[in-house]
Amino acid sequence: MNIVAYCRVSTNKDDQLNSLEMQKQFFEEYAQKNNSSLIRIYADEGITGTKLNKREEFKRLLRDSEKGLFDMVVTKDISRFSRNALDFLREIRNLKSRGIQTRFITANLTSEDSEMVLGTLALVAQEESANTSKRIKNSKKMNAEKGKVPNLVYGYDKTIGDYFNLTINKQEAEIVRKIYDYYINEGYGASKIAGLLNKENLKTKRDCAWSQNAVARILTNSIYTGKIYNGKEEIKDFLTGVRTKKDETEWILTQREDFRIIDDETFKKAQDILQKYKYKFKVTGKRNSDKHLFSTLIRCKECGYSFRQIRREYQNVYITWVCSGRNANGVKSCDNVSIIPEAQLKQELETYLRGLVKDKQEFIKRTVTNFNKIYKDKDENSKNAKDLKNKLKKLTNSRNKTMEMYQDDTISREEMRTKMGELNKDIERVQDDLKVVEYNITKGDMLGNVLENTFKDIETIISLDNMTNAQLKKFIEKIEVDKQGNIDIYLKMLTDIGLSRDVLVLSDTTYGNCKIERSWVIVQ
What we know:
Rossmann fold, alpha/beta, 4 domains, 16 helices
């Protein structure tokens, strides 16, 4: 008789080798005594017996059984075969239907014996797993309530065997502060920060090169503010082993001020930026990039895709920008054939910004005047704020419902993207209006201060050649290009007070097939 054996072994390498060797010897001796030929041992490494879908070797055994490669499966006991009673009965029935017997050596039973007896023993094995799961869960809860700390976290050193204390590593703590400074004040993305750290030959806690994910973990870990959260997830059903996220109100918080490296305000700023780009990518599928001066700033007015840089070298270097949607998906996807020469765009933008600074006071005066004409009554603003909040709540609920419909396969990805795009525009518009009325400006004094501070950033510009993408994004919201080559420049200086959609720069300056739009128009 051709037989195969199934077992589960420890994930510890030394134990695993010993266990495999011992079990191989055990099953070979069994085969010899029973005048059988041992074809193969299927061994899953350290995998729980309650979840069939994670036991790759067991699944391989079942696949091989369909090919008629063996006559019998032998295993030491029922708990080795499965600790899930339903899986146990189903699979021994499947094997029986193929003419394959299963033998449980310790219990001296086979799949030909009473299913009631086998099922009872399988339930006992399942109950043992349930009790083990409860003990582990209680132990984890006790450690969580005591404030268990991570085993390995950048910025701290841990004493071996001490599960509840850390010591700040001063050198690493400085790097943590530098990462937050890069992200918040310099506007660098996680990937760019990782590159800067690698240029300095700095290493992670595991002595590896920095990556985008490694930086992101630093930016999202609340331990740097002295807050340790445990119990964020739980396994509700030990049979499935699926982890579910618990509501934040159920997380166990331990406050350790002696762990603090970052202040609360700085940490919150980082989370706000992260959420902004996370939502933007979720809806549009576009990542934030700062590789080139105009990265993600130039947008196609026809299809919504960002423009991408094209670099060609023939004696001299020629850099242009084209619609990435048309460039990647073909001419049928977008009819915008505009080609923007970077050198001329930089020159025009520099000229425009210098002119804007020169006309600063007149611009501020016009903007504040227009603002006060629209939003001048405090009582009216308060009433409008209430209406806008209700409208915003309805739009947000619609957006959540749309995402749920997509997750339930009620609508397609394209339908979800289209609907989310529309809702996102409406939400942004309402949020802009809400910001305006909540400022409660009557004379425009606060608005004037906002504009004055923004001009301080612009006035530092001498040449765009010395600027980074992050610096440019501090005051440029976006640059839109239509299929006729007309270019609209939206300033970011009014974003915080809700006028980002209303300020457009227009003019009649033309070069090549592109026209830079530069005169100020405030549109209600």
